[in-house]
Amino acid sequence: MPSTDLADLLSRLEAQWRTHQLPIADHLRPGVDEIALKARLAERGIVPPREVVTWFGWHDGCSDIQFSEAISYGWLMTLDDALTAYDTHVNADPEADQHCWLPIIDRAGDYIVVRCHEDSPDLAMTSSVDETATVLPPQWWQPSLAVPVQWWIEKFETRTWEKGPTGRIMNHGYKDVDRHQVITELL
């Protein structure tokens, strides 16, 4: 049975980046200290579940945005980038009930987001926010950040995703499909 431990899965994902010789593997930043992370999020009223602490404690994005492609059409965000996107995109409308969704992956204007809510102290539900700042309906949410991470690992292990000739991730599952047609594929 596959692991559901997020820390273990993130190590396996990073190992896949190294196996595929993806540029991101050599440009990862050190993780964010738990106390510092919680303080930064508390400034916005965000209470991170354990999985969000694990995610940003693992790595705080990449040292160079041009090497930060982590998944097919998805770039690993630093905490600073995630908070900027939160302020300007996800939580831009104070009337919307999106204050608990924190971006972690930038998909060129769309974001993979995790739910930070006090009713879930451990697991971080995962969804996507599109260019109109709309969170996908609940039937598309995943119960834990471990679910998409496991799926991403499988994409690398099966070589559906691998390093292309330009160094970017090649998606053999969608060779001729526009990325907007597969916005939910990563959840």
Question: What does this protein structure show overall?
Answer:
The protein is of the alpha+beta class and 187 residues long. The chain has a single domain, classed as SMI1/KNR4-like (3-Layer(aba) Sandwich), CATH 3.40.1580.10. The protein is built from five helices and seven strands, in the order αααββαβββαββ. It has helices at 6-19, 34-42, 50-58, 79-90, 146-157, and strands at residues 69-71, 74-76, 101-107, 110-115, 126-129, 161-163, 169-171. The strands form two sheets. A five-stranded antiparallel sheet has the order 1-2-3-4-5, with helices on one face. Helix 1 packs parallel to helix 5. The longest helix is centred in the first third of the chain and has 14 residues, at 6-19. The chain starts with 5 loop residues before the first helix and ends in a 16-residue tail after the last strand. Residues 176-186 have low confidence and may be disordered. It comes from Kineococcus glutinatus. This is SMI1/KNR4 family protein SUKH-1.
Summarize the structure.
The protein is of the alpha+beta class. It has 5 helices and 7 strands, in the order αααββαβββαββ.
Full CATH superfamily name: SMI1/KNR4-like
Uncertain residue segments: 176-186
What structural class should be given to the helix and strand makeup? alpha+beta
What fraction, in percent, of the residue positions are helical? 25-40%
The shape is: globular
How many domains? The number is: 1
CATH architecture: 3-Layer(aba) Sandwich
CATH topology: SMI1/KNR4-like
Number of helices: 5
Our estimate of the beta-strand percent is 15-25%
Instruction: Output mean pLDDT.
Output: 83
Strand order of the largest sheet: 1-2-3-4-5
Protein name: SMI1/KNR4 family protein SUKH-1
